[in-house]
Amino acid sequence: MPVILVANPKGGVGKSTLASNLAGFLAHRGHAVMLGDIDRQQSSARWLAQRPAALPAIRGWELASAEQLRTPKGVSHAVLDTPAGLHGKKLAQALKVADRVLVPLQPSLFDIQATYDFVRELQDAARDRDGSAGRPEIGLVAMRVREGTLSQQQLHQFIEQLKLPLLAELRDTQNYVQLAARGLTLWDIAPGRVARDLAQWHGLCAWLERPVKDGKD
């Protein structure tokens, strides 16, 4: 079962927005999806509670204890929304189950600095993971980007240093906010209403649909 971890230690970078729309995409592709929330704020869990029953189902997970994650039976794909401040032992535990890690970041100096340190820790932790499980694939998603700005240029320069794929560059729009308030994703409404946003997801969606590699390096 592919497990996608959405992680960045800085709060407010768009983890829950990204995680919920990832789950929505996978659900609309016909997968049995779980959106697991391990953030104390429970943003994704609250979003899930607002989701209309008539839409493609996205399940929450069963929590056996504060330290044990349990996926419901029949789930084929899992998206995990993580808390701010994810470091050390908690990060290592999350990586034990992750096949892919998506790191959302915004084009600001504070986000860039926090993300740089986290990516280095993430890569070190991934190398320390049990070799039989392979290392998770890591990708970046730029959030709330305003095209043609200096901050966008600085973000691109920073990403070049990380040597990780930029899978999507999502614009700063109220579409995500308005949809989230109703438990919806981009894939739950008429495509024409969010055509520009859907186009920005093409690269990320293609990455998600690739088979998970065995023995990643």
From TrEMBL:
Every CobQ/CobB/MinD/ParA nucleotide binding domain range: 4-185
Cross-referenced Pfam families: CbiA
Name of the protein in question: Cobyrinic acid a,c-diamide synthase
